[in-house]
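This part of the workshop introduces the protein records we will be handling. To make this concrete, we reproduce a full record directly below.
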Amino acid sequence: MSPIIDIDHLSKRYDSGTFALKDVSLQMQEGEILALLGPNGAGKTTLISIICGLVTPTEGTVRVGGHDIRTDWRAARKLIGLVPQEITLEPFEKVIDCVRFTRGLYGEAPDDAYIEKLLRSLALWEKRDARTRELSGGMKRRVLIAKALSHRPKVLFLDEPTAGVDVALRREMWEVVRELRAEGVTIILTTHYLEEAEDMADRIGVINRGQLLLVQPKAELMGEFGKKRLMIDLYEPLANLPPELAERGLTLSADGRQLGYDYDTRAERTGIARLLGDLTAHGIAVRDVATKQSSLEDIFMSLVAEPKKETA
């Protein structure tokens, strides 16, 4: 099956010589959710802007639904919905008129039944006659989502969609996203809430300094990069770790009642059995043992961490 999004060796370089994007290639299938993660200035918004036809690339090609975004831009753009970071709405426009107008911009015939269904799904129906300037920041962001969905796009870009949105509204938004995926809509989202990416995405992409460092299925990424931490509760607190145990990578909590040990789940031997045996040999009584899986945040930080400079 042909990909709904096909990005091939895409680059964006400014006159200063700075690369906003450098040799990015990516394919996405219908109904897939990709979480694109990266620090501020990594190139996330530039990539989205190029696909949406808002920024011209220096090199490479992008096809959406088989349509080149530069040579067949009208057909490509009609397949795309974009929810930008910035809240840009006409302040005196009614919510329902705002969404209707956006639908008309794409050449779609009026469909009040669909507009009502869309506004209800975003809890906006009761606000349909309100001026957008009267809405809270979270409700304004919902209006942006409604505008992006007004023409039933096949691809939806969510650029920090839950910024400034409270927890309850955020959960409702993600229910809408799940429904869209079930209908076959392909979604690329950028977010600083890594727990959202971990919960929602099928694949995770990490971008930094304009380069796409990796794109992997979420479960595969967690398995490959994720480490576990063994937490060992002690019956009696320790003042200090015996030197030979400290060399094993053990850490001691501030109150002396818990030991920590990081290990790789992919290793043939984790060293846990030997470690517990060494504790017994040193007369350290273990009260309880638990493990904790590395989070997506841990993995993300390890990928984008600045390399340490060597000191002379």
Q: What stands out?
A: The chain has eleven helices and 14 strands.
